[in-house]
Write the structure tokens for this entry.
Amino acid sequence: MSTLPKVAWIGLGIMGSPMSENLVKAGYDVTGHTLEWEKLDRLTAAGGTAAASVAEAVRDADVIVTMVPASPQVEAVAYGPDGILENARRGALLIDMSSITPQTSVDLAAAAREKGIRVLDAPVSGGEAGAIEAVLSIMVGGDQADFDEAKPLFEALGKTIVRCGPHGSGQTVKAANQLIVAVNIQACAEAVVFLEKSGVDLAAALDVLGGGLAGSTVLARKKDNFLKRDFTPGFRIDLHHKDMGIVTDAARTVGAALPVGAVVAQLVASLRAQGDGGLDHSALLRAVERLSGARV
């Protein structure tokens, strides 16, 4: 019998499916629930167990992981008679790995405490590739003892695992991450259009830029997307639009100016308004191309 904690995993999307499968590979007993039955079939094929409801998934779990799109979905699976807080056992550890507002995380931790359930907010960075390769960066908010208990589980999912402070801190750092990523993608997209219009060999240019100070994880991960115009979603524009709303709202609350971030947030919003919300966030290239006179 495994001595590892029993895990309930709620949310099996682009990120959640490979992450939950990595826990199965690491020897964890994983019971999953999501709204798409084909994703449940994928989990069972990988060695996990499917549950028909949130309540069924969490009832016997030691650790509950949520990985859903935004704050409303976290609240939907956490609260109410069929939610996590009403059906998980006292002493369980709830790890929310979604990207949501810091305040939602703080409120969830307070509500869970009344039920005897501990909470960590633990959003991730690294996209679909990082989830598949188990090399995610995991930024965590919550109590040190709970973080220490969860560390082995995190190590099955990522490589850079840091407790950033109390409840909500992980989400605050994730918001900053999304700000940096969006601005970086936008800068890369503008460079690509500039290079192509100048008649430069784009592949060669991106190679040499990647080896210098302009190099970044974003450029390395998204270079092929730019070259091939392949915008198959690893992280959708719709979700980055949501995240830019989180960071701009949180910055306003604390009095931090985000002049460049505000512009990029509007560019992300405009791309979404033009029907590209389901594409990968590297599709910011399409917005720059349109502004530069191309029909895309």
